[in-house]
Specification:
Elements lengths: L1 H36 L2 E3 L2 E2 L1 H7 L1 H6 L9 H23 L3 H22 L4 H4 L12 H17 L6 H19 L1
Antiparallel strand pairs: 1-2
Helix pairs in contact: 1-4, 1-7, 4-5, 5-7
């Protein structure tokens, strides 16, 4: 029986990260890309909605006039918007996966805090852990997102990824250079 579970453990290190990336692509990729698309009026022009989503209190104070916000706000909106495009793409193709997943953990935490503090999310939307309900949009749902990202941070992209291909090329190049020396 121990041999059986040893095989499962060895296989899991290759299969679980690939499965995590497939689940991410199936469940969250279009969510993040769709969200990012709502934040752009042009390649370097954030939409009014982008400012309202990311800086709700500041936009309300400015009478929903984004021109009253500064360069810092523009940089944050553009950085967050492009992060929603780039980080998920990197995860799906398995390139710089650990860094991208770590970035997505940070993104999810900031997104959640913005929803709770900036948008005054109600207790039902926020939810509570260790209760009977498992459908709260913030604590319940996003805990699973963070768990998925943490799996990728800890395990990498898996054997079917650009990370694995690059790693194998680097090892091959190191072996070749060691052999020549």
């Amino acid at each position: 029986m121990t041999d059986f579970f040893d095989r499962i453990t060895r296989t899991s290190t290759h299969v679980l990260p690939v499965f995590a990336r497939i689940v991410f692509a199936a469940v969250l990729l279009r969510y993040f890309w769709g969200s990012a698309l709502t934040k752009l009026d042009g390649i370097f022009t954030p939409s009014l909605g982008a400012y309202a989503q990311i800086f709700p209190r500041q936009m309300e104070a400015a009478g929903y006039d984004a021109s009253q916000l500064g360069a810092f706000h523009w940089l944050v909106v553009m950085g967050g918007t492009y992060a929603e495009f780039i980080l998920p793409a990197l995860i799906v193709i398995g390139l710089f996966t650990r860094i991208a997943a770590l970035g997505m953990i940070g993104f999810t935490v900031v997104q959640s805090l913005t929803d709770i503090i900036g948008h005054d999310a109600d207790p039902t939307t926020i939810g509570a852990w260790f209760d009977r309900a498992s459908d709260a949009l913030i604590l319940d749902q996003r805990a699973f997102w963070v768990f998925l990202f943490a799996t990728l941070v800890g395990m990498g992209a898996g054997s079917l990824s650009l990370d694995a291909l690059l790693n194998s090329r680097l090892k091959q190049s190191d072996y070749t250079s060691d052999k020549a020396a």
